[in-house]
């Protein structure tokens, strides 16, 4: 394996694009098939796709990606599915934003990096449909490489059977790589998506990992692929079941208040938000996770 890992980088970047295409098609399919219940009389939503670019301090190319956002759909009030592949040199603040890896030996002497990934956040029209987040990524420096990501469910109105389904699908995909993974990744998500200043979790959890490198790139890549593959079967059935449910002002109010909680977490604690802004990526793409409307009481 070369120090640059060019082949591995290309495979990872291509996979994140493939996963993005699958998700965009599935979400537009949900819009098309929503023919009864709230908002079914509206036009089906479609993604607006924008290329994002990033420049180094000297103006040279530093990568970019695709920002795909749907607003005001029948099912999705706002959903973003972004992919990016970026590279360059990490400044001190960006290194500090890396959390677990900010003390990587040799980084200050040779701060080159390459990163690719997919990031998704969906905010729903119907309060009975849960909001959801998913992200998977690969990071490379001359001093080490690793994978990270996961997905978590954020309902404002909780249904135990929906939570069980979401976790069950993820467990099945994790178990294909060893029964020890799911309990560890679930506990990690419970810790990571906790909001200290509110003394509560952001949602009902999911799975999360970071700094993942067993030394076997192909095995680790297969694991991160399966985490991505778990997303649609874990989430789509919940939307299909809940999007037809009626709701009133109380349910919508609960949704807006919960979105405020989501916004607080992403702006104060989320590592991806911090890293994206510190490395000069498109601010609109980094902040696409914010809800279209929220409420604080």
Provide structural commentary.
With 297 residues, this protein is α+β, with helices and mostly antiparallel strands. Helices cover 40% and strands 27% of the residues. It has helices at 6-33, 92-96, 160-175, 181-192, 217-229, 231-242, 249-268, 271-278, 283-286; strands at residues 48-55, 61-71, 76-89, 112-124, 131-141, 144-154, 194-195, 200-201, 205-212. Strands 1-2-3-4-5-6-9 form a seven-stranded antiparallel beta sheet. A hairpin with a 4-residue loop joins strand 2 and strand 3. It starts with 5 loop residues before the first helix and ends in an 11-residue tail after the last helix. The mean pLDDT is 92.
Radius of gyration: 19 Å
Strand order of the largest sheet: 1-2-3-4-5-6-9
How much helix, percentage-wise, in residues?
25-40%
Q: Based on CA inertia axes, which overall geometry fits? A: globular
The computed structural class is alpha+beta
Number of strands: 9
Low-confidence stretches: none
Q: Distance between the terminal alpha carbons, to the nearest Å?
A: 55 Å
Largest sheet composition: 7 strands, antiparallel
Arithmetic mean pLDDT: 92
Which percent band covers the strand fraction?
25-35%
Order of helices and strands: HEEEHEEEHHEEEHHHHH
- In DSSP terms, counting alpha (H) and pi (I) runs of 4 or more, how many helices? 9
């Amino acid at each position: 394996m070369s120090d640059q890992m060019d082949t591995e980088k290309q495979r990872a970047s291509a996979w994140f694009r493939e996963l993005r295409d699958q998700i965009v098609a599935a979400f537009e399919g949900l819009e098309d098939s929503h023919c009864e219940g709230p908002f079914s009389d509206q036009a089906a939503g479609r993604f607006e796709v924008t290329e994002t670019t990033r420049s180094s301090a000297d103006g040279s190319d530093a990568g970019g990606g695709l920002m795909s956002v749907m607003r005001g759909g029948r099912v999705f009030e706002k959903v973003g599915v972004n992919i990016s592949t970026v590279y360059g040199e990490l400044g001190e603040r960006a290194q500090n934003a890396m959390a677990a890896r900010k003390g990587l030996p040799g980084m200050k002497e040779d701060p080159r990096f390459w990163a690719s990934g997919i990031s998704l956040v969906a905010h729903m029209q119907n309060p009975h449909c849960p909001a959801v987040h998913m992200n998977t990524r690969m990071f490379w420096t001359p001093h080490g490489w690793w994978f990270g990501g996961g997905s978590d469910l954020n309902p404002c109105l909780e249904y135990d059977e929906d939570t069980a389904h979401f976790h069950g699908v993820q467990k099945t995909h994790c178990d294909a790589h060893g029964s020890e993974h799911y309990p560890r990744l679930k506990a990690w998500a419970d810790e990571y998506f906790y909001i200290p200043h509110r003394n509560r979790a952001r949602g009902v959890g999911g799975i999360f990992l970071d700094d993942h490198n067993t030394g076997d790139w192909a095995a680790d890549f297969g694991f991160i692929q399966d985490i991505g593959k778990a997303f649609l079967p874990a989430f789509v059935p919940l939307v299909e079941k809940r999007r037809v449910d009626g709701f009133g002002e109380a349910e919508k109010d609960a949704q807006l208040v919960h979105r405020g909680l989501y916004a607080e977490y992403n702006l104060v604690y989320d590592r991806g938000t911090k890293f994206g802004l510190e490395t000069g990526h498109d601010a609109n793409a980094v902040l696409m996770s914010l809800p279209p409307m929220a409420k604080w009481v």
